[in-house]
Amino acid sequence: MTAANSDLRAGEQIADLPASSDASVYFLGRLRTPWSERSQCPRRGDAETGPLCRVELDPRWREALAGLHRLRHLEILYWMHLARRDLVMQNPKSRGELFGTFALRSPMRPNPISSSVVTLVSIEAEGLVVRGLDCIDGTPLIDIKPMHCPMWPEHQDAVGRL
Amino acid sequence: MTAANSDLRAGEQIADLPASSDASVYFLGRLRTPWSERSQCPRRGDAETGPLCRVELDPRWREALAGLHRLRHLEILYWMHLARRDLVMQNPKSRGELFGTFALRSPMRPNPISSSVVTLVSIEAEGLVVRGLDCIDGTPLIDIKPMHCPMWPEHQDAVGRL
Lengths: 162, 162
Description:
Shape of chain A: globular
Number of helices of chain A: 1
CATH architecture of the domain at 26-79 and 113-156 in chain A: Beta Barrel
Largest interface: A-B, 67 and 67 residues
Strand order of the largest sheet of chain A: 3-4-9-8-5-10
Family (chains A, B): Belongs to the tRNA methyltransferase O family.
Protein name (chains A, B): SAM-dependent methyltransferase
GO molecular function (chains A, B): methyltransferase activity
CATH topology of the domain at 26-79 and 113-156 in chain A: Elongation Factor Tu (Ef-tu), domain 3
Domain TsaA-like (chains A, B): 25-156
Distance between the termini of chain A: 37 Å
Oligomer: homodimer
Keywords (chains A, B): Methyltransferase, S-adenosyl-L-methionine, Transferase
């Protein structure tokens, strides 16, 4: 993605991206959310009180949902397709201070992969209904996993050995 | 990756992978662990008692570690470069039961991205020392983020608004 350097905020720094990439990603479907522009998105999804969103899965992958009904919380990985990838130092509006990219959960990162913990509300023919997403409508889906939070013992028990 | 179908376990099913991919990933460095073969790896890393491992970051990205010293737990994303990508139904050895790929945290998935929660032990010139990885030595690194576990309130406070 080409990004205009005039968009950089004070103190932000970029790296030269590598000349070639190393692996390739398939988009598995799309996330359907109430937000059509980035400025409307919440800062972070809320898996308890956030609005209902849909995870639309391409037909090729739907069989891979088998067994998901046993789970209550999922980790959804998605590709932040609008984010620039070359920032190493960022100046988040909300902080007033510079941070390295890896000290932030900003969508702008060398591999613009975001992860959200969502609550699974229902499983439908074309995918899932969940709460907890925070991305714009149409964001590409790249993975669905059982959530694993080692610091939350109740959850460890719920997921068992999945 | 070409994978022999003779390796499939009972009941396992595969999908035809799409003819083309949709996005590309940069490998940012390598994970250095004590395990040189998959059979030696623990089933899941332990961020408290696991062995010390290193996250080696390419020089291009090292500046992006600034501010990480404020964090104790990180989410590390890595590319499971040895895993086949076409499995939709899996028969995990440990379960004796078939599951859809998205109901498992198996490395075999359309986009073989794993995430581990690690404890940050120290920051060094070439990267990080952490506990909690579970992958083989040399696994490609694709992201480092502050951990976010919405169900663990103590952690929410620690990360603040990062």
